[in-house]
């Protein structure tokens, strides 16, 4: 069935109208930051079963459905959204999603999307230059978990080049701090190393790698007859937003011939901020880096970069044969560098954000969010009952209030849609966790959050 172009244009106009109103209301805090209606109740309200069974939706039906749909869920543009590390998408990235939804060019094979692939090449060149990889290579993939897995595949290919055909050598281990993102342990399991092959690095009380203890860990590993496949550092840690000492760790890895992987999914965007790029000093020493655009580069989910210092290392990560895909000159194909073959036009989202805001504008956004989190720390630490285990380095900050059940505080704030927070454990102790993502979050929002917590729970 071919498109009814007139109907498409009408429905597209409805979409723009409803989304514009949704974002406007969200930015101004005119609705609850989240709603969590039970799934069965929500399915009935949206009449999902009827629409699936009968079809026949018109643009006007769609308007009513979309309005109801948008009223539920979580409003990331809302000033009180202080929850997960999901980007508050900028509108150019949303336009890119719209374009891809219509054109659907799965551009991992160049002939399926020349423009999309070319845009990705240029975006990757920009990211490689920011990291400091002059002779590097890269690929965009659907999320940080796949990006970390791809980085680990490149490390495995460098350390055990026959592993793709012969299987993973039993003596390989992965060195990572307990604060590493769960996708690192998952990657070890997927690769066949197993969870027990992840050797936890010694850390300080806030979960940062203790560089002085690295020689002892390495000696213990080698004495047991095992080989490090890679060492993983955080920039920044998902739970706390704190950065490892990337230069010191990189120098240790270089001296000892260890593949150095930096998980910069959230924090690598600080490279764009003059006042914060020092947090990533030494990232250029890494062998591989991941950098999520769907966090601090304000693209919609998902768009994550895998960057390597030496381009051939990424080409060695995968080996594949398929006569229906691989023939002739594959020089411009990206499929040999990624898990996915049908890959969305991810680079377009990053490119359009940059094309609208510029590198400087993106850096100003990162700086503002980092500074707003620091402002929250300044405001709250002067109030009785609020305790902070550290001064924030990024837009993530953890805290406790009094002796109350911290999970109960979070649930109370979320129950009526007033604020959306998360939580994390530090040293085995549960803390509340604020992640400043929305540009609309300001001092008034932060003061309001503190005012809501204080009377509800005794310190």
TrEMBL record:
UniProt KW DNA-binding keyword: no
Membrane spanning residue stretches: none
Domain of life: Bacteria
Coiled-coil regions listed: none
One GO CC annotation: cytoplasm
Entry keyword set: Decarboxylase, Lyase, Pyridoxal phosphate
InterPro entries membership: Aromatic_deC, PyrdxlP-dep_de-COase, PyrdxlP-dep_Trfase, PyrdxlP-dep_Trfase_major
Alphabetical list of SUPFAM superfamilies matching this protein: PLP-dependent transferases
Cofactor(s) the protein needs: pyridoxal 5'-phosphate
Modified residues (N6-(pyridoxal phosphate)lysine): 295
BP-aspect Gene Ontology terms: amino acid metabolic process; carboxylic acid metabolic process
Molecular function (Gene Ontology), one example: aromatic-L-amino-acid decarboxylase activity
Record's keyword annotation contains Lyase: yes
Family: Belongs to the group II decarboxylase family.
Protein name: L-2,4-diaminobutyrate decarboxylase
Natural source organism: Planotetraspora silvatica
